[in-house]
Design a protein that fits this description.
The chain is an alpha/beta fold. The chain has two domains: 303 residues, no CATH class; 56 residues, no CATH class. The protein has ten helices and nine strands. It is elongated, with a radius of gyration of 29 Å. The N terminus is likely disordered.
Length: 420
């Protein structure tokens, strides 16, 4: 990964050229972060552990116990400014902890922190959307699991089975139901992270999506659209620049130009670092899993760059205090609600652009309004007496002359005939 030639500036790489060049990369990464995998069927002979598949040994993989709930304390200090939203933060939360140490508020989301914080469930996902659209997030980060998008699985070295390829991002042919579910859930997690980051960006915050440099997730259309939307700075970060003697690189696709200072390539000679492809640790898990956690120097430098965007109060926010965190919209604040009693899909203001519904009554509405304006501007002789007459007087003349109603009736009949 690090000994390949990259002609572009490592700190501000041309977006589409970098993503397209990923397809020809040789070095890969199989590091995995937050994720949820469904229980494998009983007949399988492989064990799934944090996204990595490997044969069962005598003792099996180490057990991972997810707490039923994270301990929470009463939140008494709600930050008035912006917060850091850390999606798929990992159990150690390196970015969040670094920002806390430097005095900034954070809100972390990961199923490893609380079993209820499952990105694949509708309730927690809707809570994330609420926070993202609230305008409270100054910087949002997402690092969804890259396990099923790793190019390491494409190697023919008896490793975990590949479930997708660059040509078959939706899944290779002849997958069983269990394998297809893993493919679908990995895409769902990635697309939901992108959706949350998009809302943060549209609400005034900065964001980044992090994946390994050569992950196939960069090829997904939803990710490409997101990168174009935010005008992403694709920042290549070599692990050796932060004290790790391994071939490893992260890529942060960020809307924040100040984050370019994190970037850097590996300039060491070939074979200077340890290659993790195919290596296993003492538990039988693939060693590349350990590289999912950012090194402390990287997290600290990230916090120093992002900190000025956030409030200066070291508050570790919990999801149990979500309602206290959300800002209260005043009646005078935009956007204003427009309700006509026609239901959620009825919008009374047809002057708004980008409407999806057909305006069936456009010609009728414009015709009537034009006639009404002409009648009012013409000031019929009885108009002043009708306007100034007391309500109790029942002998007032009609507001419009009787012959005017015939024109309204003709336009109404014409509209009915045209629209069926």
């Amino acid at each position: 990964m690090h000994d390949q030639n990259i002609e572009a500036d490592p700190l501000l790489t041309d977006l589409m050229d970098l993503v397209d060049s990923v397809q020809n990369s040789v070095q890969q990464n199989a590091s995995c972060q937050q994720g949820r995998s469904p229980s494998p069927p009983p007949e399988t002979k492989e064990q799934i552990h944090n996204g990595a598949t490997f044969p069962l040994g005598e003792d099996g993989p180490p057990s991972t116990t997810i707490p039923s709930s994270i301990s929470t304390s009463a939140l008494t200090n709600i930050p008035a400014g912006k917060i850091f939203l850390d999606i798929c933060s990992g159990v150690t939360r390196p970015l969040s902890m670094a920002l806390l140490d430097q005095g900034h508020p954070v809100l972390s989301f990961d199923i490893l922190l609380d079993s209820s914080l499952d990105l694949l469930e509708e309730g927690p996902f809707e809570d994330l959307l609420r926070v993202a659209a609230s305008g409270k997030v100054g910087y949002g980060a997402a690092s969804p699991s890259c396990c099923e998008y790793s190019r390491l699985k494409l190697r023919q070295d008896n490793g975990p089975k590949a479930l997708r390829s660059p040509e078959h991002l939706s899944g290779l042919p002849n997958l069983n139901a269990w394998e297809l579910q893993r493919v679908q859930e990995s895409f769902l997690m990635l697309s939901r992270c992108v959706e949350v980051l998009t809302l943060v960006f549209l609400s005034g915050g900065h964001v980044h999506l992090e994946q390994p440099l050569n992950a196939m997730s960069w090829l997904e259309p939803v990710v490409r659209q997101f990168l174009q939307l935010i005008g992403a700075y694709c920042i290549n970060i070599a692990a050796c620049n932060y004290g790790l003697d391994i071939y490893k690189a992260w890529m942060f696709a960020s809307s924040f130009s100040g984050l370019r200072a994190l970037g850097g390539l590996c300039h060491h000679p070939p074979d200077s670092h340890v290659r993790l492809q195919g290596l296993r640790d003492d538990t039988g898990a693939y060693a590349s899993r350990a590289t999912a956690q950012y090194p402390t120097p990287l997290a600290q430098k990230f916090a120093g760059l992002v900190g000025p965007l956030l409030d200066n109060s070291p508050v570790d926010l919990h999801w149990s205090s979500l309602n206290h965190l959300m800002p209260i919209k005043q009646l005078s604040d935009y956007p204003f609600a427009q309700i006509d009693g026609g239901g959620a899909f009825s919008h009374p203001d047809w002057s708004q652009d980008q409407r999806q519904e057909k305006d069936w009554f456009h010609s009728l509405r414009t015709s009537w309004m034009r006639r009404i304006v002409l009648l009012k501007s013409g000031h019929p002789p009885h108009f002043a007496s009708w306007k100034d007459a007391p309500i109790r007087v029942l002998s007032r003349p009609p507001f419009f002359p009787s012959n005017a109603f015939m024109a309204f009736a003709r336009s109404l009949n014409m509209s009915y005939c045209c629209n069926g």
